[in-house]
Design goal:
This protein has 484 residues and is an alpha+beta fold. The protein contains eight helices and 23 strands.
């Protein structure tokens, strides 16, 4: 396999504006995805062959057989061996009325979908949890990573012919996840229009202003984004803005936002490639949402400040690449859990020097027709601490992000004692944009360097792939949740 490597280490691409750059790409909204079930004759090209004594995993390695309490090989059944795992791992989505495309909470459906389910589990595409979480590269809270023995058990059940066993009624469907004690804000009913251009061919980025009317400073400890039209909403950002902050030329943030809004008097909001629009200075990026994310709860005891008097700018990225979506409207809601105090105040940054190269007059190009093109960027921790005026900082979580050409992304922490793998996505899927919080925060040292590598497959591209915001552009972004 031919592999092209690109490395960007020049500090001119590591400016503070790059670290706070927060535009995301066109992302196709899709909930729990699976293929169709196998046909009656058992033909299913994606099913891994298994035997009654265990099976083989997705790498071709033979798995262990299921044993009973005496150590004797036992035949696994749905109700005794498989259902408890599915109820724990899967039926939050895969249930009657759930977002999954089929049920896995009853024997008939689970048996029919068993070949596809096992294949998805062995390939680590389901449950949706992109980061490697086997202890080799970070350990994460609320992990959906399935232990190998659970996958082996379900594979052995499939190999045994999916026997049902004795039905039971002591398994309970998990309660739908909810975020309580929230303040809701939202967008107007809006019909996006394609803006065009090389960097966002079928997209519109639109910003809307909301005043939360806070009675004092508050801290965001969790949020949930409810897109009104999943067919066209491809990311949502919420950014606090001080309306009275002078931003140059005798203007304040409020003046700039009003001027931007006045440019299109017949449409709500204003265009905002970038953060909250040209010339608007934001106070942070506490809300970052993309398809598949679900409810975000920041690690206990931490939160992101929203100051009294600040207004909130909601940035919506609409994608209209599908012609049938043109003319559709959207009205989305953001639920914010705001608390009066937290033990430690954190902040989110979204560094991406690949995208940042656009603004330096030296855009990076990915060569077309290559099965593997690697791009690496580095961020010296000491430099970052200097920019933010911090003596030290703990890394609490990461938010990896690429577009449709992405294959994998990882972050290492390099220091005098060696290199440590902090987060790794081996098989990128832009339908599942999750934030990952570590079991224990990692104190970053001034003499360490964060090194991020993105691997792209550009075989389907006829021309060089440029950084940008559209479906056919790319990013190499690693969001960082930092707590001083």
């Amino acid at each position: 396999m031919r592999r092209t490597k690109l490395l960007r280490t020049s500090t001119k691409h590591l400016r503070l504006s790059t670290w706070t750059l927060c535009v995301l790409s066109s992302l196709a909204a899709q909930a729990c995805r699976e293929d169709q079930p196998a046909t009656d004759d058992g033909a299913d090209s994606g099913t891994t062959e298994a035997s009654a004594t265990g099976g083989v995993d997705s790498t071709g390695t033979e798995t262990d057989a299921v044993l009973d309490e005496t150590g004797t090989e036992a035949t696994p059944t749905f109700w005794d061996d498989v259902a408890p795992i599915l109820y724990e791992r899967c039926v939050g989505c895969h249930r009657e009325g759930g977002i999954g495309p089929m049920r896995l909470d009853d024997y008939e459906s689970a048996s029919a979908w068993a070949p596809v389910s096992v294949n998805a589990m062995q390939d680590r595409t389901m449950p949706p949890w992109l980061v490697t979480d086997d202890g080799s590269c970070g350990e994460f809270q609320h992990s959906k990573w399935m232990p190998p023995d659970e996958i082996d058990r379900i594979a052995a059940w499939l190999a045994a012919g999916t026997p049902e066993g004795q039905p039971r009624d002591d398994l309970s469907l998990p309660e739908p996840e909810q975020l309580t004690g929230v303040t809701e804000i939202g967008t107007p009913n809006f019909v996006p229009e394609i803006q065009g251009g090389d960097l966002a061919e079928f997209d519109e980025y639109r910003c809307f202003l909301v005043d939360p009317m806070l009675e004092g400073d508050r801290f965001l400890t969790g949020y949930d984004v409810l897109p009104g039209n999943e067919a066209i909403v491809h990311h949502v950002l919420v950014m606090p803005v001080d309306p009275d902050l002078p931003v140059g030329g005798g203007m304040t943030n409020a003046d700039v936002m009003q001027a931007l809004d006045d440019e299109s008097p017949t449409r709500d909001g204003w265009p905002c490639f970038g953060e909250a629009g040209d010339g608007v200075e934001v106070s942070g990026i506490p809300v970052v949402w993309a398809p598949g994310q679900g409810i975000v709860r920041f690690p206990e005891g931490t939160g992101l400040r929203v100051r009294q008097g600040e207004q909130l700018v909601i940035q919506m990225h609409y994608n209209l690449a599908n012609p049938t979506t043109i003319g559709m409207s959207d009205q989305s809601t953001v639920a914010l859990r705001l608390e009066e105090e937290v033990e430690r105040e954190g902040f989110m940054i979204l560094p991406d020097p690949f995208l940042g190269s656009i603004f330096e007059g030296d855009p990076i190009e990915l060569p077309p027709g290559e099965p593997s093109v690697e791009f690496t960027w580095e961020m010296p921790v000491g430099e970052m601490l200097g920019w933010f005026g911090l003596p030290g900082v703990d890394l609490y979580g990461v938010f990896p992000h690429m577009h449709e050409y992405g294959r994998s992304i990882d972050m290492h922490i390099d220091g005098p004692s060696g290199s440590e793998c902090a987060a790794e996505v081996r098989n990128w899927d832009f339908h599942w944009q999750l934030q990952y919080f570590f079991q224990q925060p990692r104190a970053l040292q001034p003499d360490e360097v964060l090194r991020v590598t993105c691997d792209f497959d550009t075989v389907g591209a006829d021309e060089p792939v440029l950084p940008g915001w559209g479906t056919h552009n790319e990013m190499c972004l690693m969001g960082l949740y930092l707590v001083p």
